[in-house]
Amino acid sequence: MINVKRVSEVFAYHGALGERIPTTPPNERERMRCARAVFYFLPVQALRRNSVDVLVKPLIRARLESLGLSVNDQVTSVFKGIADQYFQTSRFGRELARYCPRKLGVPDLKAGNMNLLRRLREEQNHRCAYCGILFVNCTESLDHVIPWRLIGDPPDGSNYQLLCSECNSAKGDLLSCYQAQSIHNWMYSIVDSVDGSRVLRMEEFRHIKYVRLALSSKCQVHGCTATSRNSILSVTRIDKEGVWCFKNTTVKCADHINGDEVLVYNSDRVQSA
Ligand SMILES: [Zn+2]
Ligand SMILES: [Zn+2]
Asked: What integer pLDDT is reported at residue 58 of this predicted model?
């Protein structure tokens, strides 16, 4: 059984209460478990309300107590924040809610919070958090680590990371890279081409590259410490005679890629580095 206090901590870490509440940072696996657990813990009346004046906190407290869980004020506040954001941004809620938030992007930060954008860029060394491409060489985009529908735009940027637009679109609306199930269907996605090169459908390519980068956030060559903060990370095969199934992929930095074939987002083919 997942710990309800830890779920609220992970969301508070990403700014569910408006600013980051420090705790042990969650890894990808824990983030996915927490994001799923929220929908088990929240009472349906908190998500689909027939009036804007429904008192949500007592509903949440009653639901958690009915599950035999002890709750404190931080837990109920976090869950209320998630329920409010979800309600205000649902098709149903937009008509009733007094306040309808709008998802922010890089242009909004440029116009209204340039200091935050500068800080995010510096924290990431001016590179995409997944693939390490320098922002001067790509279109930078604002990724909401926990989906916007659940947390929104905490003003201190606790829920933000900067990604190249291609990594961001490969991530899409997934709660977590562990949900990209299509990568496991690889055997139907390999298509023979006329010239004999291996060709995969673009969707699988995008997912394989994104998931591999999200799970292995550094160069996998033994002893190498390169990350997306100081190098471009590429996805290549472990065994060059093997096919491009997910399990046969690994991550290498610019110093170790040595001309190997790599996955690229904007193509349906592998390319040489
Ligand atoms: Zn990227
Ligand atoms: Zn390396």
From this structure: 96
DSSP 140-205: EEEEESS-HHHH---TT-TTEEEEEHHHHHHHTT-S-GGG-GGGGGGGGTEEE-TTS-EEE-HHHH
| Per-residue pLDDT at 128 | 97
Provide the 8-state DSSP code for 24: P
Ligand nearest to the CA of 164: 1
Distance from the alpha carbon of residue 121 to the mean position of ligand 2, in angstroms:
23
Cα–Cα distance measured from residue 15 to residue 123, given in angstroms and rounded to the nearest whole number: 17
Ranges in the chain, pLDDT < 50: 191-196
pLDDT attached to residue 256: 97
* pLDDT at residue 204, rounded to an integer: 61
Burial call 122-132: b when 16+ CB within 10 Å, e when fewer: eebeebbbbbb
Number of the ligand closest to the Cα of 166: 1
Q: Which two tokens stand for residue 147?
A: 């989906």
